[in-house]
Amino acid sequence: MDDVFKALSDPNRRRLLDALREVDGQTLTELQRQLPSLTRFGVMRDLRILESAGLLTTRRSGRHKFHYLNAVPIRLIHDRWIRHYQAPLVGAIAAMKKQLEDEDMDRPMHVSEVYIRTTPERLWQAITDPEQTRRYWYGALSHSAWTPGARWTSESEDGEVFLDGEILESDPPRRLVHSFHVVHVADAAAEPPSRLTWQIEPMGATCKLTVTHEEMGSATQEYTSGGWSYILSGLKTLLETGEPLRIGEPEASATGAVRQG
């Protein structure tokens, strides 16, 4: 956490994070406009510090490099310290994803990274075992045969389906891709399925998990807003401590939906 606090100590870097909170997935040129007093190299330096601290991630699409706010470290700070003071600001910190639609640029709509002290095999099992997803995904059980073409669902213990999809790629314990369709909320259900990618990279005793959620319609984006930071924090806590994340019940009932934290 020291790197996170150090990165947040600089007002220019906080301004960059604010800019990504308002419009996620910006290029260096777009972000430089937020800090006209800094040179391009100065902005690049601050972006590298933020990326090293895990507060943002980058993705390339053609000749463009996009920067995305990664809310997970901030959520972990909240879970470790801020929640004990019941700060009303926390809800706003968790909701850090907002997408700018751009017809000329194909950019993912949500990218999060989290480092978990575990093995790829244990992490894969936690993603695919319904008894484990129940402990960090708002009480929902993820069911699938986990092979390409198989159906994927996220549902309650009594069988009510909230999310539905199809396994598109499965390479255990490294990579899982599936479609993601909200079926129990009318506006989101009317949209085409989005695409969800889980990428696991072993790094010694730790695994880097990158979750990319793309091709979302506006209703699906609104539905998932703020939820991934809660889910990934819960996944990390479960694997590292053996216990679920305990910060009180989500604002909505625990129905297995992404957006309830």
Give an overview in words:
The protein is of the alpha+beta class and 261 residues long. The protein has two domains: 70 residues, Winged helix-like DNA-binding domain superfamily/Winged helix DNA-binding domain (Arc Repressor Mutant, subunit A), CATH 1.10.10.10; 132 residues, Alpha-D-Glucose-1,6-Bisphosphate, Chain A, domain 4 (2-Layer Sandwich). It is built from eleven helices and nine strands. The strands form two sheets. It has a seven-stranded antiparallel sheet with strand order 3-9-8-7-6-5-4. A two-stranded antiparallel sheet has the order 1-2. α1 packs antiparallel against α4 and α5 crosses α11. The longest helix is centred in the last third of the chain and has 15 residues.
What is the number of helical segments per DSSP (H or I, 4+ residues)? 11
Quickly give the structural class: alpha+beta
Q: What do the pLDDT scores average to?
A: 84
Write down the secondary-structure element order: HHHHEEHHEHHEEEEHEEHH
- The CATH class designation of the largest domain is Alpha Beta
Q: Which stretches of 5+ consecutive residues score pLDDT under 50? A: 85-108, 249-257
CATH architecture level-2 label of the largest domain: 2-Layer Sandwich
Look up the CATH topology of the largest domain: Alpha-D-Glucose-1,6-Bisphosphate, Chain A, domain 4
